[in-house]
Amino acid sequence: IRLSVISGCGSAVGGPTNSTKAKLVGRASRKPKCVADAENRVRMERLARQETERKENKPKPIVDEVVLQRASEVWSDAVGKYMTLGRAVSRRERVETLKEGEEWDESLTYSATPHEVIASLILRIRSYYGNPTITSVGELKGGEGMLQENFEAENSLDNEKEEKAADVVEADEVSSGSLGRGGLFFDLGCGVGGVVTAAASVHCWDEVVGIECLEGLHNTALEVKQMWEKVEVTRALGDDYERGVHEGLNKVRFVRGNFFDLDDCDWTVGDVVFCNCAMFTTEKMTELQNAALGLRPGSFLFTVTKGLDESTSDFALVEERTVKMDYGGGTVFMYVRTAEEESIEGGGSVGG
After folding, report:
1. Which of the residues 123, 207, 277, 281 has the least number of beta carbons within 10 Å of its own beta carbon?
2. Short-list 277, 86, 313, CA closest to 187
3. CB count, 10 Å around CB of 292?
4. For every residue of the chain, which 3-state class applies, written as one string?
């Protein structure tokens, strides 16, 4: 009698081993290729249909590449070197001030937002989302603040001179490469001021403000402010920017304080508010959302990595983008504060 033993097919007590059972179950549950192909084809067709509908219903916002490229180069030369200091400054101060028995506050973990991310978001607001004549999402329309004025009118900085000119210039030629004016920008947890100066590089705000609780980061931000306000930087950003500075626009201000305490600095008066929430707990996100209810209808709120409570009617999500951050891939959520009459009855603070 010849006995053949096939390795891996049986156990010491007889019958198939667990690994063999798993293989047999896997083979039994595997879909026929024709079925899998058909399901995959249906899924791809559905995704293509959704993408077509998205493009038809929401035109692609315009980003002025002339402004973006110029601003990026000037920003990198002027303050780019400071951005690599933030992580070390933040960690050193947190280690030195951590008291025995206290837990490490992960929400203070430093993260830098690249210039292109914040600059392109602001340019998208100027060209599309902030225009009150364009429906941003559903029946919600853009706000009525200075940043949300008509894009072409906003960029015609000398209308009388244009009207007197013999040659009529097309609106898109007038707006290309020029900067808009007005509005208030706030960065919550501004670190060394990278986002604040990035915002200032593509729009002539009334004021750009950064709020930071750590003393080391705040002091570094004040150094960044000095570098940013040098005459050569102002000139390099173009005539519109230089003219705006001479008229008192684009005032850069850094405040040391806790942005959850509006007595330190009331950022709810802002037209655009930015907050990197990568390390925020659920409780911190709730606290941020409750404070943001003070924003006027039509103002914009950006959050990074984590979004607001999806059940809220107080904010409308107009765009969600995957971006490259210093720690890897991240998601930016762009919200518009809705009007009170657009909120559902019974709406209010989150979690209460």
Report:
1. 281
2. 277
3. 24
4. CCCCCCCCCCCCCCCCCHHHHHHHHHHHHCCCHHHHHHHHHHHHHHHHHHHHHHHHHCCCCCCCHHHHHHHHHHHHHHHHHHHHCHHHHHHHHHHHHCCCCCCCCHHHCCCCCCHHHHHHHHHHHHHHHCCCCCEEECCEECCCCHHHCCHHHHHCCCHHHHHHCCCCCCHHHHHCCCCCECCEEEEECCCCCHHHHHHHCCCECCEEEEEECCHHHHHHHHHHHHHHCCHHHHHHCCHHHHHHHHCCCCEEEEEECCCCCCCCCCHHHCCEEEEECCCCCHHHHHHHHHHHCCCCCCCEEEEECCCCCCCCCCEEEEEEEEEEECCEEEEEEEEEECCHHHCCCCCCCCCC
Residue 62 in tokens: 């315009």
